Predict the structure.
Amino acid sequence: MGTGSCLPEKVLTNSDLEKMVETSDEWIVKRTGISERRILSEDEPAYKLGIEAAKKALENAGVDAEAIDLIIVATDTPDYMSPSTSCIIQGAIGAVNAVAFDLNAACTGFIYGLVTAQQFIANGVFKYALIIGCEGLSKIIDWQDRNTCVLFGDGAGAAVLGEVEEEYGILNSYLGSDGTSGMCLTIPNLYNSKEDIEKRPNGKINTVWMDGSEVFKFAVKAMSTATLNVLDKINMTVDELDYIFPHQANTRIIDGAIKKLGITDEKLHYVIQKYGNISSASIPVALDEANREGKLKKGHKMVLVGFGGGLTWGAVAMKWAI
């Protein structure tokens, strides 16, 4: 597996937000663990981040773009409804032989993308796949809503998948969805219900709205449940893991989940404090940072676990192969 990531140059600190909305650095850090986040400029598309993350992942993997058979982009925030972000990236990097499509499983998107690609590779349909989480969440934020504007940032992370030695790579996976509770986190697009409009008193309809307490309860349970379920499939215990890479939406969620799992945060690699919640890009950005810092060694056992809107959740157990 090769990894790559790209974050915007612009940094938005908690001090900057104090000038934009009624909040404080102390309030944000205490409730979220976030000190700053990266934000796209108004004339900068998110797909540019995805292009750079993809190029870095290919270089890290030592794989040419023309060798890629499949590109999956996980995103909540496509710059275009059509063409897909995956097709834009395919054209930009010269992956002329790749099948390309987007998927939306919110913050769990990268996990869904990994599992989808792994099936194609395991079945012998494709040899190499490029999975990208690419988000421009700042474009859909109501910057007057302190419940959401302090949380999110922009970024992209990518990974190249291919065949590895037996007993390495993805060992098993676990996915879940609950559409009955999906309306506790919404981003309207082509339809605005009466409820959507009422939830957004500032009149900014096509923005993120979230029932924070409900999402919190769901996320803590989903992260711990998904992790235990995927480990149970391979008869592995939490104690045997070298790392857990969770979707990083809020440090309180992570703390609650690892308490349930009975582990310390030494097995986690945090990026939320400097990047905020970057949805589907959260896990691959953290994975790439840990990889480039030399923390990941061949044979390390890890779980990647996500949870997000939909509602969706999922986990992948893997053994690092490089």
